[in-house]
Here is the input.
Amino acid sequence: MTELNKKGHEALIIAISVAVVAGMLIAAVLIAWWRFHPSMLTSEAGFFAAVALCPPFMLLRQVGGVEDSVLSLVMTEGTIVVANGSLYAGLAAFVYWALTSCRPRRS
Here is the structure.
């Protein structure tokens, strides 16, 4: 593998890793906020702002509330965290592809 190609892959791996961690962190913060202040994120404006940052957050509308069973909350919250990390990674990969395809190559 050439040195230039290897560095390109390293940049992609770093970008995707940072995006996954950022997506999971955003989802975890929103879930923690929902657990401690459920009325703030279940109002229309708060819910739409949360869904704009974390689209899988809309799954919480299907959960009965913080008083629901522990298993259903853990499964739903885990799904939201993993899904948001994956969405952010996909977006980072798309942006990386767009930047590397549209930008003229250095000689």
